[in-house]
Amino acid sequence: MATKRAVILVSGGLDSATALAEARAAGFECYAMSFHYGQRHDEELAAAGRVCDALRVAKHVVIDLNLRSIGGSALTADIEVPKHRDEGTMSAGIPVTYVPARNTVFLSIALGWAETLGAFDLFIGVNAVDYSGYPDCRPEFIAAFETLANLATQVGVEGKGRFQIHTPLIRLTKAEIIRRGVELGVDFGLTHSCYDPTPEGRPCGACDSCILRAKGFAEAGLSDPALKP
Ligand SMILES: [Zn+2]
């Protein structure tokens, strides 16, 4: 029997690296997709490339899609990235780092690629625990997108298979994601999480993403290999 293919969204962060490792561990031939979407920096795309090489994907494509044209987020417009926020503030509402409809857009393009490849399995490293502010990281959203995927495609309508959106991390804490990634052989030293790195590409240490990453490593009892001097 031929190996089943899966499309995995890979951002270069630690969550998507772990999601990719889960797809690989589940026996899928992995087709990775990243986006050059007008994010503040290219460091995360470099990280995505490193992660895809290390986990030996069958193919990695980078889609050019400039979301700066619509803006509306601290990641895609000239809006400052919030720094030094405590967890109470972070969980109080939808943060300005939310990129309007981003996961809907990304999953839609991943779905198109999956249909082309004859794949019915998509993986996305969304998480609804540590950072519950993002509407497009919730299980309800994923379930709705899965329904859409089966209605929106030729192969879905013709009954050639059923699309499944895999979210292996959705109920895990950051520390649990890190432990699982280590178990699966992910080198987190290759990943990049910061929303607003220095001009040299070093993490700022103060944005929500840096703070949650540091907390995750601390709770997992590990040091972050990406912070080596
Ligand atoms: Zn940062």
TrEMBL record:
Chain sites annotated for binding ATP: V10, S11, G12, G13, L14, D15, S16, A17, T18, A19, L20
Biological processes per GO annotation: tRNA queuosine(34) biosynthetic process
Family membership noted in the UniProt record: Belongs to the QueC family.
Lineage: superkingdom: Bacteria
EC number in record: 6.3.4.20
Keyword list, A-Z: ATP-binding, Ligase, Metal-binding, Nucleotide-binding, Queuosine biosynthesis, Zinc
Signal peptide (UniProt feature, chain positions): none
Species the sequence originates in: Caulifigura coniformis
Catalytic reaction list: 7-carboxy-7-carbaguanine + NH4(+) + 2 ATP = 7-cyano-7-carbaguanine + 2 AMP + 2 diphosphate + 2 H(+)
UniProt cross-references to NCBIfam families, sorted A to Z: 7-cyano-7-deazaguanine synthase QueC (TIGR00364)
Protein name, UniProt field: 7-cyano-7-deazaguanine synthase
